[in-house]
Design a protein that fits this description.
CATH class of the largest domain: Mainly Alpha
Largest sheet: none
Order of helices and strands: HHHHHHHHHHH
Distance between the termini: 36 Å
Strand content: under 5%
Number of domains: 2
CATH superfamily of the largest domain: DnaA protein, C-terminal DNA-binding domain
Helix content: over 70%
Shape: elongated
CATH architecture of the largest domain: Orthogonal Bundle
Low-confidence stretches: none
Number of strands: 0
CATH topology of the largest domain: Chromosomal Replication Initiator Protein Dnaa, Chain: A
């Protein structure tokens, strides 16, 4: 008997990196990270998705592999049922991505390691939900609407100034939307 445990994000990412090396095809790290986040069900499906992207981009289209082409090629696999994104879902995804607790999203702690993910979650809540600024503030520990406005402004500024930060926020948004 073999004891099968669910795969971790790190294991899935390692499997994708290894497979990409064997295929000898340049695949951006953001694409591999996106796939490792989105396809958690089983390794066969994960490897199949990577094979499908490589085949489509290199053989059929003759284009480079990008996050956009990945989403386009795998839209049927990645398609989530049409549902509304909730603030709680945003908080869970952002907390998981930055390796903090969901309770930190509601806490009064102001250390950058907590405040920055909280600001990103507020920004995404403003962008991806129809909730008002006061409603968003309440979901983040009863904060004032001006705090949410500051978070949105700060994330916009950081996205404009730091390409890696912008890509991180964009990846989180795509994961939530698909």
């Amino acid at each position: 008997m073999a004891d099968i445990h669910p795969t971790t994000y790190e294991l899935r990412l390692g499997i994708l990196q290894s497979k990409a090396e064997r295929l000898e095809v340049p695949i951006p790290a953001k694409v591999l990270e996106f796939l490792a986040h989105k396809i958690a069900s089983n390794v066969r499906e994960l490897e199949g998705a990577l094979n499908r992207i490589v085949a489509h981009c290199t053989l059929v289209m003759g284009r480079a592999i990008t996050l956009e082409t990945t989403q386009e090629v795998l839209h049927d696999l990645l398609k989530a049922n049409d549902r509304r994104i909730t603030i709680e879902e945003i908080q869970r995804k952002v907390a998981s991505h930055f390796n903090i607790r969901i309770t930190d999203m509601h806490s009064a702690r102001r250390s950058r390691s907590i405040a920055r993910p909280r600001q990103i979650a507020m920004y995404l809540a403003k962008q991806l939900t129809q909730r008002s600024l006061p409603e968003i503030g309440r979901k983040f520990g009863g904060r004032d609407h001006t705090t949410v406005m500051h978070a949105v402004k700060k994330v916009d500024e950081l996205r404009a100034a730091d390409r890696h930060f912008d890509e991180d926020v964009d990846m989180l948004r795509r994961m939530l939307e698909s």
